[in-house]
Amino acid sequence: MELSSLLQDLHLSSSGKLLPSREVPPITELLPRLREKLIAAANKQSESRALIGQLEQLFLTADPDWLFPPIRTNEWVGLKAEYAHLIRALIGCAALPLCSNDCSSLSPAAYQSVPSQATAVCSALTALLQNYGKGGGVKGPAAQLLHTLAPPIYVFAVTHFQEQAWTSSSSRDGAQRLQTVLLKVGGWKDSAHLLVGSKEEEHEGILTGVLDILQPQMSKDSWQRCEAVKLVFSWTLLQVTRPSLSPHLHRLLPPSLLLNDDYRPENCMLGVRCLHHIVLHTAAADLRHFNQAEVVYQAVFQHLYTNQAAVIQLSLSCLLDLLLVLEKPPSSPDPSSSRRKPCRHDDVLRLILTHMEVEHKMALRRVYASALPLYIDRMGVAVCRHLKRLERVLLGYLEISDSPEETNRLKILDVLQKTIKAAWPRMEARSHALLLCLLRLLVDVSSDRQLGESVRRELMDQTATSLRLLDACSHGRVQLLLQQVDSSCCSSDVLGCLAAAMEK
Q: What would the mean pLDDT of 51-75 be, rounded to a whole number?
């Protein structure tokens, strides 16, 4: 279709007559009128969809030199502003409805018209970027135009390529295609490169522009009104890695804390993931600046009092890395006596063991049992400060089966072995109670017909290893006691395990 015909269809010609191609007005005159038409049609679904389709045809058929004219450098400022306004109006035609308050979520029916509108907008933006690429716009002053347009296009694409209530398969495909074209036209390798750039490039990436769009929506009073904004923010944050994250820490940390402090588990989990990513990809000195690391610690530590297994699992993993930012681990070879004093590691481990003692929900028991070996490793010999409580946890968890995987027992056997190695002088006094518990475990495992052979063998092997370590720290007393076991009362599996444990 001729460009003049498209302008006629869009009612953008200066008169009612069809314009010859040579008399087509400059794009700088048409962009404000296109924006006005999009804004006027934003709330009229059928009208806006037809207008977006015509706009897509305009972007597909127009000469790149007309859409992106070779003007003087100082004139690019006005052109960038007009294109930015047009893109904002175009994206506004597929805007998500807002929640009426910050305590409720919209039903899927509220998003019924969004996917089709988003698909049309994706197609129009893709056509614009492809035309931009044909004109070689990534070089010279025109490159600045792409860096102006990229942030809102990126936010729109990320909003719609995730599987959510406001997307469909077609809108997700369109958004994914839009993201791919954006990366190709700009010469970016991936989303991380798009956001932060590289040292060799003149431009630093579009992360600042993206945060300029997201930050007003991620305030304390408004972040819950739009379901998509938290997902776009978190997805963006997880693309930014060391060392590019530190300069933006002051803008990334507050929204992450907002998510972390929310009462809904799904938002808590999102917030903890964001905070954990910040801890992993920010220099320790930067994170300790202005006591930010302590703020993050207190925010995550409070989740250990919840009863949500998924939240606790993420929190324990985050705290394990965060504690290294705040203090040296108790197992550090640092000869100073300060590492022998109780610290935050002790606070976390004490609370874990306290909760483990009384916990009866199997999901939470598995979470605690899986995290405990890592904390025992970190404590080293300082685990002696927690031996009484730890012994009660070991005995209690080895007695209760969680077949068929027996994850808890295997993890607790690992904890027992690490504890014996780290605190062996203190274990001799506890060897008798632990020996009886391990023998009961062997009998239970050998008589449980629901266990798979591989799980049974793993439990037997780990129990035998624990018995050997217990014998070593008790100077052979365990082996003497094992020799007195009545073989007629034991199955062949138990006898085989005891024989393996008694081997030097």
A: 82
